[in-house]
Amino acid sequence: MSVASPCIGVCELDASGRYCTGCLRTCAEIAGWPGASDAQKQVVLARLQALRSPGALRELACSRCGQAFHCGSGGKLGGCWCADLPPRPIPAAGGSSDCLCPRCLQQLAAS
Q1: How far apart are CA 49 and CA 84, in angstroms?
Q2: What is the DSSP letter of 100?
Q3: Is the CA virtual torsion 7, 78, 83, 70 positive or negative?
Q4: How far apart are CA 72 and CA 54, in angstroms?
Q5: Model confidence over 35-58: pLDDT tens digits?
Q6: 7 CB contacts (<8 Å, ≥6 apart)?
Q7: What is the dihedral of CA 56, 58, 63, 69, to 10 degrees?
Q8: pLDDT tens-place string over residues 21-30
């Protein structure tokens, strides 16, 4: 059984042209969906769910600058503040080491 697309039929790119405001997938995720494996699709779905779901407040250290910050609340969409920014892949080893502080993530989103 194939993993269903998260498309909700509201196909419009954000002002930066980086992600769909309907399903929140990046342009690369949308274009790659038909050829992606079910495992790759599940990773995308998990990221989208995390963007939409309020999470427990966590204290983390930014993997880029080392600054301590809180993750998991304060977003306009009801989840983490990072969900208000365009989704961007962040090269990292995994786990919470892929989290960036608000300043670093805003810099990355602007680039």
Answers
A1: 14
A2: -
A3: negative
A4: 6
A5: 999 999 998 888 887 777 655 566
A6: 20, 22, 23, 30
A7: 120
A8: 888 888 889 9
